[in-house]
Design a protein that fits this description.
Helix content is 42%, strand content 15%. It has 248 residues and is α/β, with parallel strands linked by helices. It has a single domain, classed as Alpha-Beta Barrel (TIM Barrel), CATH 3.20.20.70. An eight-stranded parallel beta barrel has the order 1-2-3-4-5-6-7-8, surrounded by four helices. Helix 1 packs parallel to helix 2 and helix 7 crosses helix 9. 44% of the residues are buried. Bound molecules: 2-phosphoglycolic acid. 2-phosphoglycolic acid binds next to strand 8.
C-alpha cells in the first residue's frame, strides 16, 4: 500500500524564531495515523525545527539540495549535510526553482539520484504552465518531465520517489485545479510510471497534488483514486494545515 502525504512547503517564509513558533503551534494538531506529515522548511530553519519535531510524527523536509556531495558550490547545501541533521524528505524541481533558478529536468534527475543515495525521500515536482494547458499539451508536458526527471532510476529507486503534480497556474493563485483535472493528470502520471516500470511499481508510488490546497478542498481532492495527498504552500503556514492533515 502506498503512503499518503500531507507535506507543507514553507517556501521562503519564517525566520528561525518564527519557524519554531509556527512548528510548536502546529505540532499538537498534526497527529494522524493515516498519512505522513512533512514540514519542508528553509535551510536555516531545519536545525531548530528538527528539535521541535523530535519524538513526533512530523518528518523534517528541505526545499532543495545540490546534486554533488561537496565542493566548490558557494551557497549550496548537499544531501549529506541534510542527512546529518535529520532531514527525511526533500522537494526537488519545484516550479519556482525551475522558473527562477534555472532548474532543468537534467538537474532534477541528478538531484533525485543524490537524494536517494542518502536515503532522503525526493518529493519530485512536475506541472504545466497555463499556456501549455490552454494549448492542450498538459499530458505531453508532464510525461516528458516524468521521463526525464526519473531517467535511469531502477524500479526499486522509483518506488522511493514521491511525485507531486503542481499545475503552475494553480500555485499561490487560489485557483485550485478541479478534482477531475487533478485526478486526470495524476492518473496520467501513474500510467507513464506503469509504462516505464510496471503496474505493480506504479501502484506503489505516491502521487500528490499541489496548488492552492486548503482545509476546504483537501478532502475532496484526496478522495480521488490517484491522489495520495498534497504538497501545500500557503495553507501549511496556518492552523488550516490541521484540516489538511485530517482530510484523509
Ligand atoms: P500553494 O503552493 O499551496 O500556496 O498554492 C503549493 C506549492 O507551491 O507547493
Amino acid at each position: 500500500m502506498r503512503k499518503k502525504y500531507a507535506a507543507g512547503n514553507w517556501k521562503m517564509n519564517k525566520t528561525p524564531k518564527e519557524a519554531v513558533e509556527l512548528a510548536e503551534m502546529l505540532k499538537p494538531k498534526m497527529t494522524t495515523d493515516k498519512a505522513e506529515v512533512v514540514f519542508c522548511v528553509p535551510y536555516v530553519d531545519l536545525i531548530p525545527i528538527a528539535d521541535v519535531v523530535k519524538g513526533s510524527n512530523i518528518l523534517l523536509g528541505a526545499e532543495n539540495l545540490h546534486f554533488e556531495d561537496k565542493g566548490a558550490y558557494t551557497g549550496e547545501i548537499s544531501a549529506p549535510m541534510l542527512k546529518e541533521i535529520g532531514v527525511k524528505c526533500v522537494v526537488i524541481g519545484h516550479s519556482e526553482r525551475r522558473e527562477y533558478f534555472n532548474e532543468t529536468d537534467e538537474t532534477v534527475n541528478k538531484k533525485i539520484f543524490k537524494a536517494l543515495e542518502y536515503g532522503l525521500t525526493p518529493i519530485f515536482c512536475c506541472g504545466e504552465s497555463l499556456a501549455e494547458r490552454e494549448d492542450g499539451i498538459t499530458i505531453e508536458r508532464i510525461r516528458i518531465q516524468i521521463k526525464k526527471g526519473m531517467k535511469g532510476l531502477s524500479a526499486e529507486q522509483a518506488k522511493a520517489v514521491v511525485v507531486a503534480y503542481e499545475p503552475i497556474w494553480a500555485i499561490g493563485t487560489g485557483k485550485v485545479a478541479t478534482t477531475e483535472q487533478a485526478q486526470e493528470v495524476c492518473k496520467a502520471i501513474r500510467d507513464v510510471l506503469s509504462e516505464l516500470y510496471s503496474k505493480e511499481t506504479a501502484d506503489e508510488i505516491s502521487i500528490l497534488y499541489g496548488g492552492s490546497v486548503n482545509g476546504g478542498n483537501a478532502e475532496e481532492l484526496f478522495k480521488m483514486p490517484d491522489i495520495d495527498g498534497g504538497l501545500v504552500g500557503g495553507a501549511s503556514l496556518k492552523e488550516d494545515f490541521e484540516k489538511i492533515v485530517k482530510a484523509f
